[in-house]
Design brief:
Layout: H1 3-7, H2 10-40, H3 45-60, H4 63-77, H5 80-88, H6 92-105, H7 118-130, H8 133-150, H9 157-188, H10 202-223, H11 233-251
Helix pairs in contact: 2-5, 4-5, 4-11, 6-7, 8-9, 10-11
Length: 252
């Protein structure tokens, strides 16, 4: 039995499916309680139904990108584990990055089923779980104090904290992009001479196609009033990036 067949086994499906089902039940419970609270406050049921319909629509469309992430990771980690991670607490950009970084640290050249071992999967799954739990823990411990600072007053502490949070998040993503693009450039540039290029430039091309697609979606959304494109930007960038990788591999 291969490692991938074990990761797709009934026991793994039962464990991961049970957790996903529990979270789904909790969501339904909160949805019912929210509906009852709205009725108790005298809200218009017609408007409430419209809100529910709009929420379902704008939740389903961005989930296309999440589905692509599950498909991409299922080839090396099996289907249940990526399904659990991206359904409950994980984020698409986080899961793929940490899985790849963990795979490299355990000696794998890439995140693939051919090199996957039980020890490697355990390490990857552990890191994917441990590294993301701090957001929940820090929120439970410090979020109440943070929210008080946000509401401290307009133009004083609240504005400063909110502005710092936006800048810190932007800086973090810029740092991540620079790190990954730098690794792609490092893989592309090789040889003894400073202008000797013998590496694989496919990741750079894919990153460029994905970035241009996202930039195009943002421009159309903000400048041309096509706000609906925001729901398709991530999925569209991933699809075109994958298509570019396939075409380049066929061409090369």
């Amino acid at each position: 039995m291969t490692i991938l067949s074990r990761l797709n086994g009934p026991a793994v499906y039962a464990v991961c499916g049970g957790i996903v089902a529990f979270v789904a039940v909790v969501c339904v419970v909160f949805m019912v309680r929210a509906w009852r609270a709205g009725v108790a406050l005298g809200m218009d049921k017609t408007k409430m139904r419209r809100v529910v319909t709009a929420s379902i629509t704008f939740s389903a469309l961005p989930s296309v990108g999440i589905l692509l992430g599950v498909i991409a990771l299922s080839g090396s980690l099996g289907t249940p584990w990526p399904w659990l991670r991206l359904s409950v607490v994980g984020a698409l950009h986080y899961e793929t990055q940490v899985a790849q970084a963990a795979a490299e640290q355990v000696g794998m050249s890439s995140l693939s089923a051919a090199e996957m071992t039980p020890r490697a999967f355990t390490t990857i799954a552990l890191l994917m779980s441990v590294c993301i739990m701090w957001g929940m823990l820090l929120s439970a411990l410090f979020n109440k104090r943070y929210l008080k600072k946000l509401g401290a007053g307009t133009g004083s502490g609240g504005g400063a904290v909110a502005g710092f949070g936006d800048k810190a998040m932007t800086a973090m993503f810029i740092g991540l992009i620079c790190a990954y693009v730098g690794s792609y450039i490092g893989g592309f540039v090789s040889g003894e001479g400073p202008f000797t290029f013998a590496g694989d430039w496919t990741p750079l091309a894919v990153a460029g196609v994905s970035g241009l697609t996202m930039a195009g979606c943002v421009w159309l959304s903000e400048k041309k009033g096509m706000a609906w494109l925001e729901s398709f930007s991530i999925a569209g960038s991933m699809l075109l990036g994958m298509a570019a990788a396939v075409l380049l591999r066929l061409w090369l």
